[in-house]
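Supplementary Data S3. Sequence and structure tokens for construct A.
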Amino acid sequence: MGRRRTVDREQLLDAAEAIIEASGAAGLTIDAVAKAAGITKGGVQYCFGNKDALIDALFERWGAAYDRIFAQVAGPEGNPLDKVRAHVAATRPSDEASAKSASLLAALAQTPEHLASTRAWYRERIAGLDLATDAGRRARLAFLATEGAFMLRFFGFMDIDQAEWDAMLEDVQSLLDGPAGATAPSRPSP
């Protein structure tokens, strides 16, 4: 009788990330993860149940750093402007996880069950902005500019090196802070 192999959830997520990196989101299947990890499909399904749960676990993993920065900047009772500032700050760090999440996000835009939660996440980020004010409109524009730059960079539609990325997000931060000479509310630094 053979020794029972333990299934390591983190190793399966590593395998799933490697598949996305090599083949894009379209290559991510339960079978592909099982083969990459050297286990049966049942072993992958034991950990995640199905592909949707695997995808959710990947987003959870990639979102952890974003969530930490977001919470630090927005604070426990952040107002809508603080939430946009927090989004810009949390999007600023660019790494391999950003490229992977963008790839997966592109694929998920085609699936109704994930599209609904993605729409809700985006809507929540700008909910409560007072669009009757200059500050509210600038915050909405800053949010959209940040997301547009993120997608252009990490979908590979535009080559944006780190220096240009940092400069773009400085411009976005300036937009949030308002016109020169205006006093912006104080905010915690990330």
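Construct B, processed identically:
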Amino acid sequence: MSTQLNKERLMTVLVGPHVSEKTATLGEKNNQICFRVRRDSTKKEIAQAVEMMFEVKVDAVTTANVRGKAKRFGQTMGRRANWKKAYVTLAEGHDIDFLGAE
């Protein structure tokens, strides 16, 4: 039962890929992929989730908590939600292709 709960938890850890100029450069130079992840996820959970979903070998995981920006909504000030991102370093010879270009 705990392995089933663990797999369900791992399926919800990754929110999606985080694409920017910085992450594109990291992907080319350092074989790193950047993901938006749940704020309560751990590095170990992130590594297991990436290995399970994409069938690759993970070398390291680095996380960063990002503060939400203050934004104006009409006359009132609001704030976007805080979020967490994870830089996942893949082992040599492993790659994740999100675009599917061949």
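The chain has one domain: 2-90. DSSP finds three helices and six strands in the chain.
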